[in-house]
Amino acid sequence: MMKPRMYIPLSSVAVLILAAAVFLLARMSAQVTLTPPEGFAEENAGNVYRAVSPEGVSMRVRTVRNYPKKELSFWRDALRSHLLDEGYRILNDENFTAGTREGVMYEWGLPYGQKDYIYLTAVIPAGRRIIIAEAAGEHILYGKYRKALHESLQTMKRRFSFS
Amino acid sequence: MKPIRGIVPSTHPIFSTAMLCMVLLCVLSGPAPIHGEQYLSRSMRAQIMVADPKRAAENITEWTEERGGYYLFRSMVTVVVRIPMEELEELRMFTERTAEQVVSMDFEAQDLRESIIRAKSGIQSREEILKKNLRFLDRADVEGTLAIEREITRLLQEIEQFKGRLRKLTTDVRFARAEIHLSFTEQTLPQDIPSSFQWINTIDFYRFVKGRYEP
Prior knowledge:
By secondary structure, chain A is an alpha+beta fold. Chain A has three helices and nine strands. Chain A has a single domain, classed as 3-Layer(aba) Sandwich (Protein Transport Mog1p, Chain A). The longest helix of chain A is centred in the first third of the chain and has 18 residues, at 10-27. Chain B has a domain at 37-113 and 174-181: Alpha-Beta Plaits (2-Layer Sandwich), CATH 3.30.70. Chain B is elongated, with a radius of gyration of 29 Å. The model of chain B is unreliable at 1-10 (pLDDT under 50).
């Protein structure tokens, strides 16, 4: 008597493949690659990129969901008006290009302890995500690394990886 | 010996009149002329960032004094100076050289012509009335003299007030006012206002420098 062969229905295979794909997509996260600012030590912890200078000027880059999905001009105005409303003092704002993407960068002046600090915020909408970069330091130290920070911003790219 | 009957000088109308005439001479010498018939008052307000605010404050006040100005207020983070009007542009350049970064620099000008003319005409009209009152003094009796004296005193007070105002306006025209803030540390701290967009709520300088990350 012939042993009956085990057939796996095609639909089950499809379900398995789909489940695997969903699992992989869930594990996949949007990360950012960039050249660190000159003189900074970098740390890539999960989805957040951090870099810090020997004197403590720090930088952080991350991505967030572009929701509601909007373009640069919208987020530029939203961020600017919000921080101005909160009482941040704007020192500088400029557009920049990182690869093929356009971004905007603001520098804000704030008191911290007995010192003046500069806080940089940069935003690049990248499809369904928004790349956000922040950096801050005491204003003299910030001035020392300002060029390096700006150059680093221009190297930011979004990439996908499995975490 | 028969004692001499004293007259209290300050209450005698003739003595009072002589005193008033002396004061009047001073008053009629007129207010100081306005510098080159300039009527514009200028001011500068700057917010700059410097490496050493205390030292920068000292440098600015020293520089101002060398240029014929003076300072009204100086602290670790703010300097308020008066500088001859023609030096204002130089002060702007000096401030820019002093600063690591100029955050803001605003200039204002105010035409004081109307205020100056009002003060001058106030003095002039009261001086004319004063002259007339002095002419009446010769013909007045004691009671009338006292009344005129009261009137003259009032006029002199008003003239002095106008002269003080005119002096202030003259100073405003001759000296520009500059207020220079050397730090943000006196600024009000930003408030945490919620945004409609979730990710914008995560942008916060103080959380960032303290290393607190909220995704």
